[in-house]
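note to self — DONT lose this again. spent like an hour looking for the file last time. sequence + predicted structure for the chain T wanted, 323 res
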Amino acid sequence: MSVRIPAWALVALASLAPLAQAAPGYPDKPVTLVIPFPPGGTSDVVGRQLAMQLGEELGGTFVVNNKAGASSMIGATFVARAPKDGYTLLLSSGSTFTVTPHLMTRMPYTLDDFAPVSAIATVPFAFVVKKDFPARTVADYAAYAKAHPGKINNATNGLGSMVHLLGELAATGMGVDVTQVHYKGASPATVDMIGGVVDSNVEALTSAVPNVRAGQYRALAVLSPQRQPLLPDVPTFAELGYPEIVGETWYAVFAPAGTPAPVVERLNGALRKITASPQFVQTMQQIGNQPRSSSPEELREITLRESQRWGDLIQKLKIPPVQ
């Protein structure tokens, strides 16, 4: 099977030679990659692929440690308090630093407790409806919702989750009033979507694609800036006249603040090479993710920008703290 490598990946590969010499002794003992989510999910697939390829690229041992709970705060706190030597790393989701801090009355860490290393992948989302929902298009959905204010039940992965915010973003962007139904995670929300218990949902492509293809429910639009290869016939909200309904989350690697710059540099170079590799590109595309990379500075800028965006939405919607 041939894999098309994006142009940005070829550029990244061409710039790696100078970085290969940074921190030549690293790693000389096992490195722990903390995943702040349970085993078996998309983050686990991403993390284990990264750990395997980091070991191959840097000639060391990288092990995965799932430390789930408290909206990723347990795992993130563990890394923030780890030795500042590059041997404990965090695979964060976008919400770890951009959503969760706005929904907690007290936080055990801040972004300043971490050294950004590199972005890894983006996670696109699709706006889906149950298979017998009367709307066949986004325009139909908006018209139906306006004719039945508050009557549409939209599933979320939990109060204050990224999926909740994306659902609110879609509703406000369409100018409609829907009832947000908060589940304890993605799986029960998907089960009720399949069962027709709820009317709509914003789902990561990881779960949306197989269920849409199986006819379990229908996708009306994607929230990414461009159409998605796994759902090529599904339009973006932007092309349907809703340019403000654009949102996705992402995975990135962070180290504890104070980690030596040569170690961060070496890790960044390795991660840029890995995210450009055919193996990683294929793995991500198969589960609906899009590989990406960044410099540490770019990752910090992305995080701050997204934190401002979601914080403003949380304030606008008056979403209460969850803890």
